[in-house]
Structure prediction request, 422 residues.
Amino acid sequence: MTLAATLAARTPAGRDRYVDFLRAFSILTVVCGHWLIAIFGWQDGRITVDNAVGLQSGLWAATWVLQVMPLFFFVGGFANAAGWEAAQRRSLGYRGFLAGRLERLLRPTAVFLGVWGAVEVVLHLTDTGAPGILRGTFIPFGPLWFLGVYAAVVALSPLMLRLHRRLGGWVLAGLTLAVAAVDAVRFATGLPGIGWANLLLVWLAVHQAGFFYADGPLPGAGRRLWWALAAAGLAALAVLTNLVTVTGELWYPRSMVGVDLEPVSNMSPPTSAILALAAWQIGAAMLLRRRVSAALQRARLWTVVVAVNSAIMTLFLWHLTAMLLAYLALHPLGFGRETTTSARWWAERPLWVGASAVVLLPLLWLFSRWERPPRASAGQDRPEPRPEPRAKPAPAAGRGRSPRRPGPFSRPGRFSPRQREG
Prediction:
């Protein structure tokens, strides 16, 4: 039996499998998206990659669905709330919590940097590639921006969870207003540097929304609120990305990924448009939750989800390296030479996804072991139970009606005893 099948078979009954699915889905979507939209260039010893979204008319619409990094941070809010609860039960304190949360993040990252550091040393010693600190290409290091931001969000999560428990939705509202204020000052003054404050504020806000999943108000809110959340997010996106028709200046591009041809980006630094994107995606995710959760009871599908999650950092860190190695192999054969979204470029898309996936498999086999702590390598690894969101309250006895449903700004409760189990 494979490790993934073993872990899948040991899954506690109360685990919220949908959270694991969303995490795996978001990272796989990011990986395949990078492989799909890449337009390569090779000049003066340096390999570069451009984004096809800026070159293909209408392709921006796909980013409203496939830019799923908000879902990852949303799930991170759920996971870090559960992790902090577990650390408190075990009397580990803040340092223990932080060490536990960051270990799996930093161990595979250190290995990644060590390998690529050795590669760069060889390139320098052999005078291969273009002049500069990075001799060959910057492509493999693209994922590293995410690690720094996520580590900061993890470090702040106990404080943000405490504020959430005291003030409820007012914390999320305050973060949303802060993001809008940064945008307003940035675009009014023309000082782009101030926009980088949103690199933390935007992702903190999305992460904060995950606490509402963990504590129960969001799963218990019902389909009407989920539809309203998705619709409000889409409406906000439509308004923000069409402000250019009123202002005459482009503040919020239609693309939710960076495009070199546009003067501003919704991701670098992130803007209020990413919060709108998060709202629509979270609403859609909640609408799909019941059906997908039922499907995840099937052993085969759940084993796939467990397998992806067991190597998720390795997958994320090495997927652009795999694409680069595929490019080095296929470029001499005449592939990857299109500089526009031509018919041939589109015809090559399945080749690049398939070739990159084939190259990634041995990298996963080689480096995923660094995601597991030493005790896991000794065969003692087991799935980490996660709290199941609080169910809707049962009707009050003798009153014939349900207790008042907590509103979005009500004070959330802590995990119930059942949720703490495991």
Q: What stands out?
A: The first helix runs from residue 3 to 9.
